[in-house]
Every structure is written in C-alpha cells, then in structure tokens.
Amino acid sequence: MFEISILLMIFSTGMLLLVAMLNRQSTAIHMPSVKSENCNSGLLETDNQTDMHAERAKKPPPMNASDQFIQTMSATFAHLQIGIAVFDNNNELSLFNPALSQHLGLRPEWLLKKPNLPGFLDRLRDTHILPEPVNYTSWRKTFMKIERSAMKDDYREDWDLPDGRSLRVVGRPHPSGTVVFLFEDVTNVLAMERRFRAQISNLENIINTTATGLIAFDRTGKVIFQNNTMKRIVGADYDSNSIQEFSCMMQAVFYPTPIWGDLRQYVEETERSAWQASVETQTGETVLVNVEPMPTGDTLCEFHFLIKINQDTCDGLACAAQ
Fold this sequence. Notes:
The structure is a single chain. The protein is α+β, with helices and mostly antiparallel strands. Among the domains are: 69-196, PAS domain (Beta-Lactamase, 2-Layer Sandwich), CATH 3.30.450; 211-305, PAS domain (Beta-Lactamase, 2-Layer Sandwich), CATH 3.30.450. Helix content is 47%, strand content 19%. It is built from 12 helices and 10 strands. It has a 5-stranded antiparallel β-sheet with strand order 2-1-5-4-3, with helices on both faces. Strands 7-6-10-9-8 form a 5-stranded antiparallel β-sheet. α10 runs antiparallel to α11. It is elongated. The model is unreliable at 19-45 and 308-322 (pLDDT under 50).
C-alpha cells in the first residue's frame, strides 16, 4: 500500500506539471527574410543556407520540454511492476505500461486502440479476467463515478481472479479530467496475511484453552488482554477494564490479602522485577499468582491453580508408569 500511495503522489504531480507545460507551450516565431543588395553575397548566403539545412536534416529535431517529460515518465512507468492505466478527459486510454498487459492479459494491440473506460471494463469481463460481481451494472456505475470525480475517496478494492491471483486496484480521479488506475499483484501478500491471521487464531485458541488464567495491563493500568480461564475465575457477570476494577473483583473472589494493592502500584512503576504470591479462594483453592514485567512496559499476571491429586489417582498413575 505504501508503494501505491507514493506512486499515486508522483503521478499526480507529474500530471500537474505536464498540463502546465502544455498550457505554456508557445507557438513558433517566424522571422521575415532579409534580401541582400549584393547579388554575389545573396548567392553565397543561399549556398550557406543550403549547407546548414543539409546538416540539420541529418540531426533529429530537438524535443520540447513536454515531449521530454512524457518520454521520461513513459520510460519510468515501463519498468514498474504495477500496472498503470490512464484515461484522459475524453474517456480514452491514453497511457499504459507493459505491466498492465501482463496482469490483465490484454494484448497491447487492443490497448493501443485507446478503448474507453466502459469498454475496458467490458473487455475484462468478457475475457473472464474481471471477477463477476453480484450486480455488474451497479459495480460499473462505481467506476463511472471515478471518471466524473464524483467519489470523495480513492477507489480501492481487491480482485480475486479466476486463476487464483489477487489484484489490488486503486483508482484516483485527477482535476484535469483524467483518471489513473493502478493494478498491483498482491497474491503473495494476501497469502502471507492469511497465514499470519491463521497463526494468530491458533495462538489465541491455545491461550484460551490453557488452565492458567492470564491477564495483562498496560502502563496506565488498562486491561489489554485476558484469556477465557481468567474470565471464568473472575466470573461471567464481571468485566474489568482497569487494574482498579480488577483488584476490587479479586477481593471478592479471594480471601483478603495485600497483594492487590501491591499489584496496582507495580503496574505504574518503571524499574520492576518479577514476583509471586500465593492466595486462597473463598472455596479453599490455592492459587499461585506470578507477576512479570513485559519488554513493552506492560504487566502480565498468571494465575496457576494448584490441583490436589488424591491417593487413588497417585496409585493409578504409578501403576501406569510401571
């Protein structure tokens, strides 16, 4: 996304400069010829002019500033991996780069015919490059809004192509009446994001399945995370958002102990070290509380329940071990 934003900014600046150049482009000035009074000198001047015209014919005519600017932009965009399609104020495709043909599978010969934006979209649909939307007519009108600069924000959408690729499409109208579309292949990026989200989901499931209650506070004492086990300890009817609310709830769950006041002070301290304490619930269960500082400055509290195994269970485990 960062690359697309930078490219849009560069392109918009370039279009503004190009329009300014074309508006300021001056017409050629024709100087009247002066006749020489001397016939011989006139013949000599004619010969010199002929030689000069012959030398000039050998050299290519110099490009003006606008032509040089267009050539520079075209050479730059030709090496980009992001497909570019520019539709002018006549609604015709006026500029595209090789990456556009590569991403969309459109032949350069057809693109050189300068199709308009509706025809461009219809071509993508007919060649099964464009993902079929639920309502194509409504979706097509969205692009027409971009063309008329009727959209407040840029058009941004990810297209899932039939061949398995994913294209990120960005459209931006320009004050001069042109519209630029960028097509970026984000197949690998989206696949990486899906894998990352799957790993996060698995990690959350593991944390919520463990028998240890976990709760974390930031430096201001705000609760930033708690797993399902911690919620069961506190109770489904209680919901704490700060260390103050959490400590009040703990006084109702456990027998009176000064560690909750210590925890409130510990969260706001800068130089800290891990510590632990043993508390007892109102039902007689012993819980070991571990308090640890995190590298980010947050605080993590762990609630470990000490499970008592009766003698019959111990004998069964011993027999199984033998």
